[in-house]
Amino acid sequence: MMEEVRRILLDGAPVEMVRRGDVLEAPDGRRIAPDDAVHLPPAVPTKIICAHLNYQNRIDELKTEGPPAPNYFFKPPSALTAHKGTVIRPRGCRFLNYEGEVAIVIGRATRNVGVASALDAVAGFTLANDFALHDFRHADRGSMLRVKGADTLAPVGPGLVRGWVPGDQVLRTTVNGTVVQESTLGGMVFSMSYLIADLSRMMTLLPGDMIFSGTPANSRPVEPGDVVTVECDGLGVLENRIAEGEHDILDEAGWMPESSDQALGVALGEQLRE
Questions:
Q1: pLDDT of 64-99, one tens digit each?
Q2: Distance between CA atoms of 153 and 223, rounded to whole angstroms?
Q3: 16 with 133, same domain?
Q4: Same domain for 121 and 161?
Q5: Is 230 a domain residue?
């Protein structure tokens, strides 16, 4: 049986509330409509690990070869934002791309788990949008720290769904109501169980840790004012609005944004140049 739990800021404090029909209910009986709630990320991770190129149609789109085993990158927890939160495109940048995904949330300390039992380590699943700032594609020698790690570039939510089993559900992303990505989860190259088992060979996954399981084809740039949603059967709808940053990126240290061939190629879905 599925159950959805949302973390809500209620009376100034985080509260876990269970969705019961059209209302959210706290353990002490307080209730609120989901549309009236101030959402928080549904878990508090120590790390966010993202699978790179894990949908065959994304691999095909970029005219590259899929990896023989998963590749990953990190997003810092400071990149998190919640359902209805604002995603910031820094001033001076052009290529902020959406990437709709399903996120795995770990429920217990997990090390060296096998593929067959990997889902036993899961607290639940949620939606994610693995935003990428491709203006920094030239930086960080492939780690994608600045591409993926800026504040607000990891919206997750709206809630944590327990008892949901990944299968062939439809994952869909929209921009201003228009469908821009759509695939079944069966389009993944490596299953969610495989990702958990693979990562747990090398590191301890802790409660609340998140694994973003990859995005399908047609990741494209968005503009300030756009409203982006991610939805998947059984997991609800994650919605975020794009806004421009209030300040210029300081040029006293480090790489600055560039409209390079590499940025254009990846942001617009052309051949991957790495």
A1: 988 999 999 999 999 999 999 999 999 989 999 999
A2: 14
A3: no
A4: yes
A5: yes
